[in-house]
UniProtKB/TrEMBL annotation:
<protein>
    <submittedName>
        <fullName>Uncharacterized protein</fullName>
    </submittedName>
</protein>
<dbReference type="GO" id="GO:0035249">
    <property type="term" value="P:synaptic transmission, glutamatergic"/>
</dbReference>
<dbReference type="GO" id="GO:0099525">
    <property type="term" value="P:presynaptic dense core vesicle exocytosis"/>
</dbReference>
<dbReference type="GO" id="GO:0031594">
    <property type="term" value="C:neuromuscular junction"/>
</dbReference>
<dbReference type="InterPro" id="IPR027080">
    <property type="entry name" value="Unc-13"/>
</dbReference>
<dbReference type="GO" id="GO:0043195">
    <property type="term" value="C:terminal bouton"/>
</dbReference>
<dbReference type="GO" id="GO:0098831">
    <property type="term" value="C:presynaptic active zone cytoplasmic component"/>
</dbReference>
<dbReference type="GO" id="GO:0017075">
    <property type="term" value="F:syntaxin-1 binding"/>
</dbReference>
<dbReference type="GO" id="GO:0005516">
    <property type="term" value="F:calmodulin binding"/>
</dbReference>
<dbReference type="GO" id="GO:0016082">
    <property type="term" value="P:synaptic vesicle priming"/>
</dbReference>
<dbReference type="GO" id="GO:0019992">
    <property type="term" value="F:diacylglycerol binding"/>
</dbReference>
<dbReference type="GO" id="GO:0030672">
    <property type="term" value="C:synaptic vesicle membrane"/>
</dbReference>
<dbReference type="GO" id="GO:0042734">
    <property type="term" value="C:presynaptic membrane"/>
</dbReference>
<dbReference type="GO" id="GO:0016081">
    <property type="term" value="P:synaptic vesicle docking"/>
</dbReference>
<dbReference type="GO" id="GO:0061789">
    <property type="term" value="P:dense core granule priming"/>
</dbReference>
Length: 97
């Protein structure tokens, strides 16, 4: 999984989107050059929320804090952008595999 961030001087940095690439093909080829659509925020069920609450209590664990922050940030998209993003992600996944 990778993420794209918007680093801004005058305001708080925020995540623009996330995406997923299969590493199996990159290992064989040594590199990967492709267009990847950024997906929407992941849906978190009750178990996921419990895990996020547990991880958020680990004040000295930098990795846990970063994970909770990444999973709880919102990205702003319209309905049409989400639908296009999901269909393009499926096309990209088929091209890569």
């Amino acid at each position: 999984m990778f993420q794209v961030k918007d680093y801004c001087f005058a305001r708080e940095d925020r995540i623009v989107g996330v995406g997923v690439l299969q590493l199996a093909n990159m290992i064989e080829q040594g590199s990967c050059a492709c267009w990847v659509q950024l997906g929407r925020r992941f849906h978190i069920d009750e178990t996921g929320l419990i895990l996020l609450r547990i991880l958020s209590q680990r004040q000295t664990d930098e990795i846990a804090r970063e994970f909770v922050r990444l999973k709880s940030e919102c990205r702003y998209e319209t309905e049409s952008t989400i639908a296009a993003s999901m269909s393009n992600q499926q096309l990209a996944a088929n091209r890569i595999s």
